[in-house]
Amino acid sequence: MESVIQWFDPSLGTPVVTVSKTGLTFNPAAVALLDSPAFVEVGVDPKAKALVVRPVQRQIVGEEDTGPSSGTERALPFRRPASGKPRVRVTSRDLIRFIEASIPDFTVSGSERYLARFESNAGYLVVDLKQPLRRRRRRKTV
After folding, report:
1. CA distance 67 to 69
2. Interatomic CA distance for residues 25 and 9, integer angstroms
3. Checking phi first, is residue 116 left (phi over 0); if not, alpha (psi -120 to 50) or beta?
4. pLDDT, tens digit, for every residue of 14-57?
5. Taking a C-beta distance cutoff of 8 angstroms, is the pair 29, 13 a contact?
6. SS3 annotation, the chain
7. Beta bridge partners of 76
């Protein structure tokens, strides 16, 4: 039973991915769950109305970094090794068009935040497009 428990880390919070017209933004918790990879592959499960994000390892030949490992031509750049930013943005309008084409009743109009969960046995992050986070109402200041 211990192997299926996901423990909450209060320093990171809940993993959230924002979907906008220009790409995806991963909050620090989502980046940490993916283990800050240099590249990712993004897939769509139209039936579950979900995105699947899988980390891709770098291929290093000798001392030279040759990019994503072989067989992963679909990989998108995710995080630079020297980047200290806690959030990661994957900019790709084509990716958003692909998502909209794969899930016909899903349309990106602005930017919307969605809950994500990590499937540890499969090693990927699942972004549930049926669970948008509600926006906080701003208090009026006088």
Report:
1. 7
2. 20
3. beta
4. 999 999 999 999 999 999 999 988 899 999 999 999 999 999 87
5. yes
6. CHHHCCCCCCCCCCCEEEEECCEEEECHHHHHHCCCCCEEEEEEECCCCEEEEEEECEEEECCEEEEECCCCCCCEECCCCCCCCCCEEEECHHHHHHHHHHCCCCCCCCCEEEEEEEECCCCEEEEEEEEECCCCCCCCCC
7. 40
